[in-house]
């Protein structure tokens, strides 16, 4: 069977002013299965946002193939919802209008059904009292939440999120993470979740992709087989710590992260499966 | 706090009011001739000598040319800026021309325009248009190009057509810039109208100043000058009011 989303030997370089080019991604390959929750971690500048732009069809890779549903991505598609790294709100529209903006921009009109859906999404991200406020009256974290509500509005089959919680405080962040899992559980979708937080990645994902910087490469893929539904309790699971330290090893000591820790993860995964 | 800000608000007017007696006293005690620098009381007297209807006539003539020229300029410059932002080719070819036109003194072109267009209202509009054009195009283009790339990505991810990207995202995003450009341009429009009247007109405050000075009625010219400053100020305030009333978000410094 075809994988739902797949990257095959994808490299991407950006042209620079002086005619040279910056290699942002080098030979990246991975598959995502339908309704899988995949997290991407890696240091700043390793090409995570580049990955988002390639998957969402905003640009073509200079080498390799990006496939969705078995066909090559050549342009942006309707099935994908994107949460950008910067909260890209339109400063002249209030929260509700910002949330329905994609529909309006695409079709020229917004049905009352879409509007009530928008209301629900705004409530879901905890901004019910701010529905009529303008973006410049919101904090950075609130703006990010509007961006999340906007991406979820049309219930996309694929959701790509670029550090969606980076401007949130630790408490709201955790809460939003579980909220995301609840939505994902309720209306299953394929998620690519870019984050700087190892804890967040392990807590949310089925699979964590670890990237190494300059040029961005995929240094490891780790399956997280913690039981679902996950909650704040999951953090106390001993397996949780093993996964986290394994990922940490890969990020900070990519060459040393060898057989020992891999063996321990495999052992844990086996144990979890047997449970 | 409130009385302090009230003081702040009226400070310019208060300063002016306090300067008036000083001006009067200096003119009188040094016997400054009226044809060089008239005293406020003399200016006021000569202001009263001219019938209100005639003042209104001149005022309206100037205001009309300024506003029509400004409006015309706005109607040409914003679409042009949109086209130039959309096409590298167009902006590369047109921009140098705009700079050349801008760096040629309008005062020097004015007589030429009048020989070209005749002595009607057309050359006056053309001159006003010319002088207000550059700040409007440049501010609109700057604003549209300053649109965050993520907003453009958002539009492209929806596969929205290019014209929508410009109309629904770049244009509104550039409004704060356009308003700054408009504030510069609206005061320039009065200058344009006056310059045009200096060259050829039978009406207008510019014409009135030229006419008065050629008959050594300097106090009258001063009265017209004060009128001109007041119109400029009022138009500037009007633009600001429109901005804050209809586009309040352009004035608040936000993170968005
Ligand atoms: N438009 C561009 N032009 C040139 N180089 C770029 C461009 N966008 C990204 N890069 C380069 O590509 C590399 C990867 O950038 P990218 O934005 O994908 O990183 P990232 O992993 O998202 O970083 P962060 O975690 O800081 O957001 C960086 O070295 C960056 O300098
Ligand atoms: Mg990034």
Automatic annotation (TrEMBL), chain A:
Protein keywords: ATP-binding, Nucleotide-binding, Transport
Report the SMART domains cross-referenced here.
AAA (SM00382)
Q: Where is the ABC transporter domain?
A: 5-238
Can the keyword NADP be found in this entry's annotation? Answer: no
Q: Does the keyword Transport apply?
A: yes
Listed InterPro entries: AAA+_ATPase (IPR003593), ABC_transporter-like_ATP-bd (IPR003439), ABC_transporter-like_CS (IPR017871), ABC_transporter_ATP-bind (IPR050166), P-loop_NTPase (IPR027417)
What GO MF terms are annotated? ATP binding; ATP hydrolysis activity
Q: Where is the signal peptide?
A: none
Instruction: Write out the similarity annotation.
Output: Belongs to the ABC transporter superfamily.
Give the protein name, as stated in the record. Answer: ABC transporter ATP-binding protein
Source organism of the structure? Alteromonas aestuariivivens
From TrEMBL, chain B:
Q: Name one GO cellular component term.
A: plasma membrane
Transmembrane regions: 65-85, 97-119, 125-146, 184-201, 221-239
In its UniProt record, which GO terms are filed under biological process? transmembrane transport
**Does the keyword section mention Iron?**
no
Chief location? membrane
What is this entry's stated membrane topology?
Multi-pass membrane protein
* Pfam families registered for this protein in UniProt: BPD_transp_1 (PF00528)
Q: Does the keyword Electron transport apply?
A: no
Q: Keyword set for this entry?
A: Cell membrane, Membrane, Transmembrane, Transmembrane helix, Transport
- Write out the annotated subcellular location: Cell membrane
Q: Where is the ABC transmembrane type-1 domain?
A: 59-239
Identify its protein family: Belongs to the binding-protein-dependent transport system permease family.
The name this protein goes by in its record: ABC transporter permease
